[in-house]
Amino acid sequence: MIRQKILQQLLEWIECNLDHPISIEDIAQKSGYSRRNIQLLFRNFMHMPLGSYIRKRRLCRAAILVRLTAKSMLDIALSLHFDSQQSFSREFKKLFGCSPREYRLRDFWDLTNILPPLLTRQYQKTDCRLINLPETRIWGNSFKYDIEISNKPPDEEVKLRRNHLSRCLQNLKTDIYYVSTYTPSTKSVDLLTVETFAGTVCDHADTDMPKEWITAGGLYASFRYEGDWEYYANWVRNLYLIELPARGLVRVNGCDIERFYCNETFVEKNNNYVVCEIFIPVRPA
């Protein structure tokens, strides 16, 4: 139990320091174990060498930056402490089967070889349904913000989306849809722009919402969440990192659609219980 706790702390420390130099000596010193013993402990519990884990986690973080930001390949390589852009590209292709540039330009996102932080392995699997959704008209308004790509959803983003949802539920008193797009920010190469259209499915005459969004029809992976809003964003992240690859699905271009079921108690500040479905556009790998 003590060893597992030490490993959990080390995994969290590694995640927070992927963009800093990390050596086995640093980890040994932090853990209180010798260099040899900490490597044996890690291999026995995690079933892979410590050095390989750090390298793969850096490559996977690089893949997310390549896909979601406009940051140059050189800047990504240097920020994650690869020796050069060439060595970064070589290691990237070994793991993902294509160059970083090809990975960025694809019209789909294959997360098959993404290694999530091993501390998320305790995540409970979620039931998935593959469904063909028709085009759907949603009336509402949009909001937009920029975020940094980090290992944890920013607190401000979590609060912003919750507050907007609470207002929509309070005003409309019906199920609320979030339709979200993700594009590299034009303000900074380090940022991701999230634009969300929030509204409801209804006749235009029945609502004061001025704008219309038509969701794209097609194949979607559907997942259902019931629980605390505080954990929802991490749950969604794990759908991408764990659930889609486990089911042989790749994310295609399009919008994520979230349907939040009407819940009057959610508008109360001290109640964060939410029930929703998320629909992610996919195809078989």
TrEMBL record:
Domain (HTH araC/xylS-type) ranges: 8-106
UniProt xrefs under SMART domains: AraC_E_bind (SM00871), HTH_ARAC (SM00342)
GO molecular function: DNA-binding transcription factor activity; sequence-specific DNA binding
Keyword field: DNA-binding, Transcription, Transcription regulation
PROSITE patterns, sorted: HTH_ARAC_FAMILY_2
Superkingdom: Bacteria
Record-linked PANTHER family: HTH-TYPE TRANSCRIPTIONAL REGULATOR YKGA-RELATED, RIGHT ORIGIN-BINDING PROTEIN
Protein name as it appears in the record: Helix-turn-helix domain-containing protein
Organism: Escherichia marmotae
Upper classification of the organism: Bacteria, Pseudomonadati, Pseudomonadota, Gammaproteobacteria, Enterobacterales
